[in-house]
Structure formats: C-alpha cells, structure tokens
Design goal:
Blueprint lengths: L1 E6 L4 H11 L4 E7 L6 E2 H4 L10 E3 L3 H7 L2 E4 L6 H10 L3 E4 L9 H8 L13 E2 L2 H10 L2 E3 L3 H16 L2 E12 L14 H4 L4 E2 L8 H12 L6 E6 L6 E9 L5 H11 L6 E3 L8 H4 L5 E8 L4 E8 L7 H12 L9
Parallel strand pairs: 1-2, 1-5, 2-4, 5-6, 6-8, 7-8, 9-11, 13-14
Antiparallel strand pairs: 3-4, 9-12, 10-11, 12-15, 14-15
Helix pairs in contact: 1-12, 6-12, 7-9
Organism: Velamenicoccus archaeovorus
Function: Catalyzes the NADPH-dependent reduction of N-acetyl-5-glutamyl phosphate to yield N-acetyl-L-glutamate 5-semialdehyde.
GO biological process, one term: L-arginine biosynthetic process
Amino acid sequence: MLRVGIVGARGFTGEELIKILMRHPGVRLTYLSATLTKPEEIGEIFPALRDVVGLKCEPFNVDKAAEKCDLLFLALPHTVSMDYVPKLLKRGKKVVDLSADYRLKNPAVYRQWYHKAHKDIKHLKAFVYGLPELYRERIKKTGCVANPGCYPTAAILGIVPALVAGFGDKDGVIIDAKSGVTGAGKKVSPEYLSVHVNENFRGYKFNMHQHSPEINQELSRATLARVDVVFCPHLLPVNRGILETIYIRLKKSVPAQQVEAVYKKFYKTEPFVRMRGLGVLPQLTDVTYTNFCDIGLVVDEKKKLLIVSSAIDNLLKGASGQAVQNMNIMYGFDERTALA
C-alpha cells in the first residue's frame, strides 16, 4: 500500500486530492499539512469529509512527513514549493508538485514571470513535466513531477497535434481562454468576490499571464522550434471549468477530414482525451467533475484556419486529477484508477 501525504491540504486542489485518494484502492492517505497554528481535524476544515477522513491537518514537519509518506503532493502557492522540495528529496521521498516552481526549466524565465529568484535550481532538471500525453515514459521513471498548469493543459493538448503534424503555423496561434473562479485559488481579493464575479465576464493579463511561458516552452519542445503564442485569459462567473477557443493558421489548405484524422490518431490510446466529431464543440458541463479533456475541431479550408475547442475541469485534469494520474503512472497503477 502506497503511503501518500498532501502539503497544502486546505486549498481547492488539496480538497480534491483528498477526495480522489480516499477512493484509490492502492493508496493510504497518511499525512495532511497546511499553514495552521495548531492541528485541526480535516473534517472541521471540510465538513463534507467529517467521519470520512480520520486525519488531522497540521503544520508541516519534514521529519514527520518523511516518516509517514512514500510520496507527497505539494498543493502549495507558486514560489513556496521550492522551500519544501529539497528537504523531501534529501529524505528520499517522491514528489508531485502542483505549483509552477518546477515547470519552467529556465530559472531566468521563472524569475521574469514569478518575480522571485528560484531557490532550487539544482533540482529543476530532475522534474519531469507531468503531461502524460507527451511524457508518459519519462513520468514512469521519475520521482519528481511538475504537474502542469490548468490553462496550459487545455492549450497544449488542443494545439500540439497540429504543430507536430506540420500543417499548423507555429507563428499564428491565438488562445482565447476562459476559466472558473476556483482557478485563482482561495486567495482573498476583492476582484474574486461574488459581487464582482456574478453576472460578469472579463478578460485579464492579456499576453502577460504567467502560464504563457509554460505553454510556449512545451510547444517549443514538442516541435523543436520556437513557439510564441498569443494567450488571452478570461474569468467566467462559474465555480470550475476551463474552455479554450484556439485559432491556428494553416500553412496550406488542409481537408477537414485530414485534420480530424491527425488528432484522432494522436490521442487514439489516451484514456483522458476525448475527440469530438468535426464541428462538435465541447461545453464545460461535459468535463466538470471529470479528468477528461474534450476537444472539438472546426476547419475552414478556404480561410486556411483551424479552430480548436478544448475543455477541462481546472481542478481535476487541470490540477488534482492529473496529479493522481501522474502518481498512477509513477507507481504502475492503472492510469484511470480513482479517476474514471
């Protein structure tokens, strides 16, 4: 039985991790930690878990975490995980980090976008970017996974087949993305209060969002060429879910059926990517509370334009579900265990 802990258990992703891991037949949840002044029953923090999870959530103690766990999920804010990772790796623990701290391989890029120097450059190369559809074989062999961001997961899965196949123009990619409010985490900020979100819809950080370099890094790695997308996120007045409309210029007119065939072949064996028929577009309710990414395609042959619609649940395939998917791969469990 694999012993698993969660550091940062009080957040949205921590709560989702607990729910998933409690139904995993190969896992025992043994440790919960968060920023607290004293230990507190997890059922008091999340009443829905009362009498379900018999654990206290307590201030982090690296020795206790190492003693009780084989693997730890770090559901911590960006720039915080790098304080914890070296201590855990030194004690021989495996780590799945849900923050951005180990996603970007260039520390100068990390500093530019997260406004803080990276404290653990030593371990950057050891972390595998945890997108199973691209890096499954590397994930199997690693003890360190950098779980992808929610926006990048939907974007990369929607874009990469077109660029790898060679018919998509890498210089003509525009991502129009929309996310539910839980994508911002539990931070207290006036802009996320119900009165400002409900019955409203707005864009933010157009082409300045910290997920831009992550998307560019992975698309560049996949195509062996520099990719620089236009990324425009928006806040939806819903709790969860991401829907991205992606515009990809085609190098030449490509038959719609050929484009569809490329995408279907690319994801043929993927358990959590569902391709829709041509012109059939996913909606949020198709994927919320699941670990699926649903992808729809529209091809305008005359305009030489591919429009991709990519939908995920930001807390599951965009965070905690994908983290457990990565754990399943690392330890040889069926990839779908506790997720489907």
